Structures are given as C-alpha cells and as structure tokens.
Amino acid sequence: MSETTTRPAPGSHFADPAALGLGGFALTTFVLSVVNAGMIPGKVEPVVFGLAFAYGGIAQFAAGLWEFAKGNTFGATAFCSYGAFWLSFWWLTGHTDLSGAGADVNKGLGVYLLAWGIFTLYMTIGALRVSGAVLAVFVLLTITYFLLAFGEFGSDAAGHGVTKIGGYLGLLTAIAAWYASFATVTNSTFKRAVLPTFPL
C-alpha cells in the first residue's frame, strides 16, 4: 500500500509579496494624488517620477512575479499590471514629448486613464474573493481612474474640478492600500491576526 505524499503549496516558502506590492502602490499613489488634488503646485509633479520608476514600478512588478511563483493569479496580475502602469506613467510623463499634440493630449491621457479604469473594474470582481481590505482598494481605485479620465476629457474648468476630486479619491485609495500592506506586515510579523483584513 503506497503512502500519499503531501506536497507544499507553490511558493509556500516565500514571504508574502503582497505587503511590498501594496506598499509600493500606496506610497506612489499618495504622492501623485496630493498633486492631483491641488494640495501642492502641479509644477512639482516630477517628484513622483522616481517613485513611479523604482517603488511603484520595479518593486511592485517584482512583487507580482513572486505572486506568480506562489500560484496567486490575482496578485500576480494586479501587481505586475500596476507596476507596469507606474513604469508607463514614468515614461509617458517624464520622457515623452507630447507638445506637438496640442489640446488633443488631454484626449489621449483620458483614453489612457479610462483603459486602466476598465481593467481595474474587472479586477474588482476578482477582489470580491480576496478580502474586504483589498476590495476597498479596488473599488476606490476604479472610481479614481474614471474621475481622472473624465477630468482629462472635460473642459479646462470642469475638467480641473473633476481631476481634483479624483485626487482626493486617490488619497483614500492610497490610505486603503497602506492599511492592507500594514495589516499584512503586522500579521506576518506577529504570527497572528493583529489587524483585520476582513476575509470574504
């Protein structure tokens, strides 16, 4: 009679990469949202570029690769995709000359943000099976993307107002993501559920 061999789950020897991915997303989103909300002048937006490249981009993308190794399709898709978003944002805003597009540049940016909103909307469906903390991030992020897109499509005055609202929603998104990252780090470090993530 043969014995049944129990194999460990894929990547079970890895630390949870979600804390890093959520942290990179939260911090970069927070800084950009402060600019979008008009709390500091838009001329200082380049302070986001380094974060978008290193923390929101590379670190978050790396977290997504570790999620692939752990067999987590949702986490891998989310972190690699938003890592790529921040890298594309870094390239688009810091290294692409859009001056020749004139007023049409806003339409292009609007489509760019709208497409990310659509992606985030269907990822929100998957988040329904993750946790309440992660679901809150995706619901807020979906609304943020759509508001920022509509802000780009709108006229100067109206669009600016919608963008500011999107900036404030972005701040709430960052806080939610920071909480989810904080809970993941804390619960892992203390080896018990210190902070609730509200499993679904």
From TrEMBL:
Its main location: membrane. InterPro entries: AceTr, Gpr1/Fun34/SatP-like. The chain crosses the membrane at residues 20-40, 46-66, 73-91, 111-128, 135-153, 165-185. It is found in: Membrane. The keyword Kinase does not apply. Keywords: Membrane, Transmembrane, Transmembrane helix. The keyword Membrane applies. It holds the Pfam family Gpr1_Fun34_YaaH. It comes from the Bacteria. It is a multi-pass membrane protein. Belongs to the acetate uptake transporter (AceTr) (TC 2.A.96) family. This is Acetate uptake transporter. It comes from Flexivirga alba. The lineage of its organism: Bacteria, Bacillati, Actinomycetota, Actinomycetes, Micrococcales.
